[in-house]
Amino acid sequence: MGEQSKRMTMAQVLIAFLKQQHVECDGVEQPFFAGCFGTRYAYPQNGFLPGDDAAEVAPLPVDLAANAANLGAHLIRCATYDDFVAHLKAAQDTDRTTVIYIQNDRLHDVPGYESWWDVPVAEVNEMPSVREARREWEEMRTSERYFL
């Protein structure tokens, strides 16, 4: 008999595949899981994705809200915080997957509130920058408050 095969879920297969992939982030090729989150959808310039310092950027025509709706999600579009608050209850009362879509500027900070977006950072990683980000995330979690 030959080597025994290892049984894997589809999620495990996908993760194993992605670990072998590389992506270009701000003109630099790096491992897929290296910390580039792909929050900017832009056409390449001279074979590279434009950095944040690029004078002009041609955005890709990606409609994430339409994609969610096409996958069967109930879609709620919001333009303001008040819209969000008004629609949050309706979203909680639905009996299916619901996406609340709010378009924003990824580089626009909230002035003067010292706020942050609680997005967990990988707990186990060999990259010093990821370890430092995790340490900062854990520290910030201790002062997290809930407003809704």
What does this structure look like?
With 148 residues, the chain is α+β, with helices and mostly antiparallel strands. It has three domains: 7-61, no CATH class; 63-107; 114-148, no CATH class. It is 29% helix and 12% strand. It contains four helices and four strands; from the N terminus they run αββαβαβα. The protein has helices spanning 10-19, 64-70, 81-92, 128-141, and strands at residues 22-25, 28-31, 74-78, 98-102. Strands 1-2 form a two-stranded antiparallel ribbon. The chain has a two-stranded parallel ribbon with strand order 3-4. It starts with 9 loop residues before the first helix and ends in a 7-residue tail after the last helix.
SSE diagram, text form:
Layout: H1 10-19, E1 22-25, E2 28-31, H2 64-70, E3 74-78, H3 81-92, E4 98-102, H4 128-141
Parallel strand pairs: 3-4
Antiparallel strand pairs: 1-2
Please state how the strands of the largest beta sheet are arranged side by side. 1-2
Rg over CA atoms: 20 Å
Following the backbone from N to C, one meets helices and strands in this order, namely: HEEHEHEH
Structural class: alpha+beta
Number of helical segments with 4 or more residues: 4
**Distance N terminus to C terminus?**
60 Å
**Could you say how many structural domains there are in total?**
3
- Major sheet: size, sense and barrel closure? 2 strands, antiparallel
The strand count comes to 4
Q: What value does the average pLDDT take?
A: 77
Instruction: Please give the share of residues in helix.
Output: 25-40%
Morphology call: globular
Strand content: 5-15%
